[in-house]
Amino acid sequence: MPRKVSQRKKKSSTSENEMGASNNSEGTLTEISCEAVGNLLRRANKGGTSKKKMMPEFQPEHNGTQVLEPILQPNTLEAGHCSRNPMGNVSLDKGCLDSKEELDDSDWEDGIVPKDDHPMTIELNVTPDSAVRKQSHRASAKDKDLAELVHKVHLLCLLARGRLVDSACDDPLIQASMLSLLPAHLIQLQNVTKLTSKALHPLVSWFHDNFHVRSTNAEKPVCFALASALESREGSPEEIAALSVALYRALNLTARFVSILDAASLKPDQSCRPDASGSSKGIFNTSTPMVAKLKLDFKSPKQSLSSYDIDKVCESSLGRSRKSKKCSTTSHMAQSGDPPISEDLKSSITKSQTSETQDNDPESCLADKSHKSKRKGDVEYEMQLQMALSATTVGCLESKTESGANADKENFSCPSKRVKRVVSADTSTSSQLISTAVGSMKVGSPLYWAEVYCNEENLTGKWVHIDAVNLIIDGEDKVESMVAACKTSLRYVVAFGGHGAKDVTRRYCMKWYKIASQRVSSTWWDSVLAPLRDLESGANSGVAQFRPNQSISTESNTGHSFVPTRSSLEDIELETRALTEPLPTNQQAYKSHPLYAIEKWLTKYQVLRPKGPILGFCSGHPVYPRTCVQTVKTKERWLREGLQVKADEHPVKEIKRSIKPQKVQDSGADDYECSDSMENSKLYGMWQLEPLNLPHAVNGIVPKNERGQVDVWSEKCLPPGTVHLRFPRAFSVAKRLEIDYAPAMVGFEFKNGRSHPVYDGIVVCAEFKDVLVEAYAEEDEKRRAEEKRRDEAQALSRWYQLLSSIVTRQRLNNCYNNNLSSEMSTDIQGKNENESNAAVCADNDNNQSPKHHPVNKSGTDLDTSFDTPVKDHVHVFLKEYETFDEVTSLLTKRCQCGFSVQVEEL
DNA sequence: ATGCGGAACATTACTTTGCCATAT
DNA sequence: TATATGGCTTTGTAATGTTCCGCA
């Protein structure tokens, strides 16, 4: 946000140059000035005039000056002046000051009177950041949509990634290798029938001691990466967690791979706040940068490690820790004799550092921000220092390592101490936090872990959280604080198993109300997860059963609906957590909390009933269960749902109804009357209602309301014994058949500033339905036939008009311009000839054809001869009346009416 | 550093049943 | 003279949601 400010400041400083250079900048300049003036005035009028009032004054003017030439506009208001002033085009006219009398004169004059060349600096320097910021950073609906889309797509990608990892954990080779590494006494675990989390401790401990998180070998597909990690006993957090899952599965335990899906923020502006959460910096900042990784996979290291890729990796949501890891890789690579790459990397890293703050908003780099970026720079500096140190260390240790390509292996012998040191350096900004939060465990945010199903926990069995990397068993309650300490958000925790997935966020998130708004709409998420859930529950019910005779059936509940499955038991557990969430400590959380409510945050149409029990207090406000919140509505609103208020029920709440501004034209007296007669809306609750009890239709008469119609909000609103016929002209049929009907009003629409009822069809008694439908069909048929007839008649008449005009034209041609006889062409009959050029003329001799047709006798008046008689006549050209002129090759066809056509044979 | 609450906007929900001049 | 038709200015208001900012 302060970026914009600085941008504006920059612009202001160069404004004079820009002025001369181009007009384009003037809009911006004007804008700046407007804002500056607005802010000045706002400050001046603080408390008096509200901002709302001020802004519209500037807006239109500002628009105008953008289009027009602001300098030359004589009638601009104060905003225009302000923008001009700094440009040196001073000439303040009195009119300007006059025009803004309504504003605070003295303040205004103070602001603009100076005629020197530099008032601008003053103006822009006093521009309060807040106003500019507010304007520029309020996300538009488009931004929101985009952010949501990105969030969704990112989630899908992360889900897919999780499934990939899950599949890799099933790899028999990996599992077998894990088993082969396992000491004999731990292998016994697969024979344990009553598994408790405690029993897992030695196993997890062994794993923790033997596998460490370190640099990534992400260039390979998951399975290979796993194999490699297995070989080196080191890998990314994801790989190590996956290996642990593979180990559990190898031991025939039921295990899931669990991952925090740290997707790009759902809210558009989150990415602008580097410190809001360490992880939200855009989509590439995922903990599982699949794209970048895959990209790398297909290229030689030299080509693939472009700065772009590295940027992505370095910005990954593991954030600093991951960054450092990558960097340590870098150093190793440098060690292994590939200086160009390391150079690339270094430069790219620095690039990423510097660009990180600027890329989002290229125009900016600001004073306010500076200390933050400085801090960041410090972090990076420390990181690089650590890198260098570790590289040296590795270099010493490393004389024994062989291939540069296998950089991952280089640190095999490296003590985990070193790793931890690097990691702690990464997170140095929050290292205190971490150390307070999780004691001496200096780790990055846990993003991956395992869940093992322990059938002896909790009577019914339980999925136990096992973070082998951090040696935490059954620490589901610790995850939230650890994640919080690392500034990662815990919005989606998904357990992967059986190629499916299940959202288990509830198990790890104690403060759901804090993350609820950061999650995508549950309907979408549920629908996405539904098929994956089925896969997961199907697999984890059937696979790896501990004992066939276990009291809790692990089979899917196909036969008996009440046999609890492992999955359904887990559902119950998660549901229970959802229902036993602790009370939020801040009031705002109660606004839309699904479980709790405080009266203060109820909406206009909500009441508490019953008003109790009180579950607790928040800042002195009693907290009630959300189930006590009832929605209340007016009678009319309930009517729409087919409900009516019972007799003798009093409104449970009354709210002021807004005054209708319809008859405000009159004087104050009327106004007074108006407000006097203003009624309150009476609201009723669900418990005061009964099903709508409309009068029955009797004797074919439809019961109507006071307006002689039926309000058909829904089917429920139809009086019993009536039907709604949605035919366009049904009423006319009913009228004709003398059937009683009522117009069906289905809603309102706003037109011309008023609400108008919208009608759709009619309501009639049910017994007339068939008759009406039949009659309507008949009528419709008739109507169509009539329409067709009309269309045909119209077509005929138009043809007639066309031909008449042709004839008239031809006749005129004949009379006044004989040379143009073949100008017009027509094909009237078109069945005998393929002629292309036909000369038409009116032949009024009637020599051959005439048979007491009135036309023929009408003599020489050509106009009249054609006008009347030929109407409604279709010319018939009989063969016997044809004549053919050999010389001119003209075929003359004649109708009995005397009309003739000459056709030229080609 | 964090959360709270107010301010400033943005968005949504609620409202809810013509009139007059002109042509036919 | 009675009836049909078309055009007119176009919601306005309040509640609710979201974001920012100052303050404790």
Automatic annotation (TrEMBL):
One of its GO terms (molecular function) is damaged DNA binding. Residues 14-31, 347-357 have a biased composition (Polar residues). Keywords: DNA damage, DNA repair, Nucleus. Residues 1-65, 324-377, 840-865 are annotated as: Disordered. The keyword Nucleus applies. GO terms for biological process: mismatch repair; nucleotide-excision repair. It is found in: Nucleus. The keyword Nucleotide-binding does not apply. One of its GO terms (cellular component) is cytoplasm. InterPro entries: BHD_2 (IPR018327), DNA_repair_Rad4 (IPR004583), Papain-like_cys_pep_sf (IPR038765), Rad4/PNGase_transGLS-fold (IPR018325), Rad4_beta-hairpin_dom1 (IPR018326), Rad4_beta-hairpin_dom3 (IPR018328), Rad4_BHD3_sf (IPR042488), Transglutaminase-like_sf (IPR036985). This is Putative DNA repair protein Rad4. It comes from Lupinus albus.
